[in-house]
Amino acid sequence: MKFKSLISYTLLIFTFTFSYTQTPNNPWSLGFGVNTVGLMNESNIESEMGFGFPHIGVSRHIKGGFSIGTQYNIGKAKINNLTKDYVSIDGFLKYNLSNKKFIPFIIGGYGLSNFENDPDADGYFPSRSAGRTIFAGIGFDIFFTQKFSLKLLSTYRSSSENGSFNHLQNVAALSFNFGGRDSDKDGIKDKKDKCPEIAGLKEFEGCPDTDGDSIPDNKDGCPEDFGLIELNGCPDNDNDGVIDKNDSCPNEAGLKELNGCPDSDQDGVIDGEDKCPDELGDPQNEGCPWPDTDGDTITDNIDSCPDQPGTSENSGCPELSSEIVTTINELSTQIYFAASSHRIQGKSVKEALIEIKILLDDNPDGNLIIEGHTSSDGEEDDNLELSKRRADAVRDYLISVGVNPDRLKTEGYGEERPLSDNDTMEGRLTNRRVQFRAEF
């Protein structure tokens, strides 16, 4: 073997040959190129590197860096100044050592090598000089584009049968990889494309970034609006932390709990709906404070008497003083009823009621509750009903002499609240009564 010839052929192959690297995206590879053959350490044999054409190879990616395939080579072998036809056919297993633009790989396989044509022999490999061959070697794939690369391969082939020789084979081939599908034509095969139906970018695994905010559309909450990464790709024009599509007031900084709208007076009503945006108010009054018409510090919404000053104990209504109520109850001691009766009768009773009416006229603020009571004579249920009728009778009389009905309410207690012992006549007479108390 002449070393200079080996160098010359290698440079010639490097200059004129290109390759397409096989990948999982393009699992099939078809190669076409040239080869050289040189004998190795054969005694009494003088040899030179012989040039051959073509090299044809077909392979299929399996998994990871592994591929399997077959190759066929036609060339020349120069032995003892004689040029012999060379043919080989093999099956091989290839393993890529990386997945970068420059990929070294190792290869090994088994096949047949033939150094002498015999036209009279039968079969597809017509020669008595064909030998079974085991081979292994190394090579490189050098990428120029995603689909084309230069492949250089050198293998040592061991074939010790008669008529065959151990030899070195160098190959360079232009290969075409195919079989992978790219539905959206974005250069990323469907197998690795996260958005196989939409053309996208390699840095986003095949998905587009329509708004150019560095967030791919499939992860962008607002794919058509330039936004912020921390807001999932959505814009926030007023910088209040509420994205515009969820912000009811996108041009005014506001509160998250109010859908991005401001609430200047912090009363829970957004400024756009607050009739009094600068005053702390009540949401039930359109954001305005409730008025206090009578000035008793009890707002009209909870004041039962909004036009009359009153007390909080009496729900905003005026009340009778304890002194007036005491005086009225002193007068009520003159109001008695006959047994089982609710009639108002007797001059003293009516005079007492007139006095009560005069007191109420002189003290127009406040209301009274009239309580009816009975002795223990008769049935309990009957006594309860009788006590209510006695209170109503007093109320009716007071109304008849001019007392405002709205100032009087009645309740009946029957025999449950005696003032005296019901075992005596005097006690039962005392218990058949009415009493008064201020309404709160």
Give the helix/strand layout.
Layout: H1 3-16, E1 28-39, E2 47-48, E3 50-63, E4 66-79, E5 82-96, E6 102-114, E7 130-143, E8 149-158, E9 167-178, H2 322-332, H3 347-362, E10 368-372, H4 380-400, E11 408-412, H5 425-431, E12 434-438
Parallel strand pairs: 10-11
Antiparallel strand pairs: 1-3, 1-9, 2-4, 3-4, 4-5, 5-6, 6-7, 7-8, 8-9, 10-12
Helix pairs in contact: 2-3
Entry keywords:
440 residues; alpha+beta; Porin; 60s Ribosomal Protein L30, Chain: A; 8-stranded antiparallel barrel; 3-stranded mixed sheet; rod-shaped; disordered N terminus
Any overview of this molecule?
It is built from five helices and twelve strands. By secondary structure, the protein is α+β, with helices and mostly antiparallel strands. The longest helix is centred in the last third of the chain and has 21 residues, at 380-400. It has an eight-stranded antiparallel barrel. Strands 11-10-12 form a three-stranded mixed beta sheet. The protein has helices at residues 3-16, 322-332, 347-362, 380-400, 425-431; strands at 28-39, 47-48, 50-63, 66-79, 82-96, 102-114, 130-143, 149-158, 167-178, 368-372, 408-412, 434-438. α2 (322-332) runs antiparallel to α3 (347-362). It has three domains: 3-178, Porin; 184-235, no CATH class; 322-438, OmpA-like domain (60s Ribosomal Protein L30, Chain: A, 2-Layer Sandwich).
CATH architecture of the largest domain: Beta Barrel
CATH class of the largest domain: Mainly Beta
Which class do the helix and strand fractions yield? alpha+beta
- Order of neighbouring strands in the sheet with most strands: 1-3-4-5-6-7-8-9
Compute the number of structural domains. 3
What is the 3D form? rod-shaped
Percentage of β-strand residues: 25-35%
Number of helices: 5
Cα distance, first to last residue?
A: 125 Å
Largest beta-sheet details: 8 strands, antiparallel, barrel
Q: Which regions contain 5 or more consecutive residues with pLDDT less than 50?
A: 1-21
Following the backbone from N to C, one meets helices and strands in this order, namely: HEEEEEEEEEHHEHEHE
What name does the CATH topology of the largest domain carry?
Answer: Porin
Rg, please? 56 Å
Please, what is the average pLDDT?
A: 85
The residue fraction in helices comes out at 10-25%
Number of separate strands: 12
